[in-house]
Amino acid sequence: MPSPSAASLLDVVRGPGSPPVLRLETRADPAHWAARHRDALRATVAEHGALLVRGLGIGDVGQAEAVFRAVSNGLMGEERETFAPRRTHSAGVYSSSKWPQNQQMCMHHELSYTLEFPGLMLFACLTAPTTGGATGVADAPTVLDALPRKLVKRFERQGWLLTRNYNDEIGASVAEAFGTEDRDAVEGYCRANAIDFRWQPDGSLRTRQRRSAVVRHPVTGRRCWFNQVAFLNEWTIEPEVREYLVDVYGADGLPFNTFYGNGDPIDAEVVRQLNAVYEAHTAREPWQAGDLLVVDNIRTAHSRDPFEGPREILVAMADQVRLSDCSPTIEVTHP
Coiled-coil region(s) at which residues (predicted)? Predict the structure, then answer.
């Protein structure tokens, strides 16, 4: 990204509990404006970790895609290992994840369980919800500093483990997550991406992958709490939903769960503590139609509040980064 000094070109305001906001009064074409101010936008994100641009006037998928491409260094291709289905609007432009609108989508870093993930997340609001539905952001270095040192040291030493069970009833299916139902292709992807896999007698797929919970930002070198330990853990699932899933699929059959890197379970109090630290450092601003939100995916976690009414947020993942370029604390082992 450009030097943060270029951010002085933008008049950014940050109120208590809100992300940095740039308020525009322009009728210019959104993509033209974004291209003209690209360096300043990226420098502002590099300085603050996120930026909400209000008044840009993004009105449809085509305008959103043009803005995303103007700001980014390139949109990532078809998503792999998704945990919830998305609708594809155009090449590299998706709907937000299909997640129950009455449930909180907790803080996470997009695709932080993969070996290649977006360095930049871009969101455009076409329809703002009646109430709620904000995309919150939290600074990962600040979150890391606020966590108990003993807990951080354990995750640095052991990493974190993600387990997934793919079926056709809940969460992403094999075809949605891997782009194919062909077993050979799925197995090839898993081997290439350090994912242990087991086909179950009923034909479903169970996977395990161990990743670093703390990484260094590839540009600034700052240490970041970068994972989905809390979000994808069983204790973050709504209690009645978790009880139902355990009853139907068994404790080992949950669609996703997280553990310490050595396989030990993470107790509910640790998950509560992680989510409490996130909430204490969350900045949020209600969406307005036409808004653009740009997030440094490594520096900044994001979430989604429950909401009422229609909500249409377009999403793009951009500026692909390799885990190996982020000084992982554990070695990735291939099955």
Answer: none
Whole-prediction pTM: 0.94
Token output for 39: 């360096």
pLDDT tens for residues 108-129?
999 999 999 999 999 999 999 9
Fold of 142-276: Double-stranded beta-helix (3.60.130)
Q: Where are the domains of the chain?
A: 4-99+115-130+285-320, 142-276
Pairwise CA distance, residues 187 & 199, whole Å = 10
CB of 313 within 8 A of CB of 108? no
Residue 11 CA, chain-centre distance (Å), reads 27
The token pair that represents 166 in the structure block: 């793919």
Asked if the domains at 4-99+115-130+285-320 and 142-276 fall in one CATH topology, the answer is yes
Task: Take residue 237 and report the two structure tokens written for it.
Answer: 């699932």
Residues 6+ apart with CB under 8 A from 298: 109, 119, 140, 215, 217, 218, 224, 226, 321, 326
Give the pLDDT confidence of 76-106 residue by residue, as tens digits. Answer: 988 889 887 788 898 899 988 888 898 889 9
List of residues 6+ apart from 152 with CB closer than 8 A: 144, 214, 225
| Sequence-separated (6 or more) residues with CB below 8 Å from residue 32 | none
Does residue 25 come out as left (phi exceeding 0), alpha (psi in the -120 to 50 range) or beta? Answer: beta
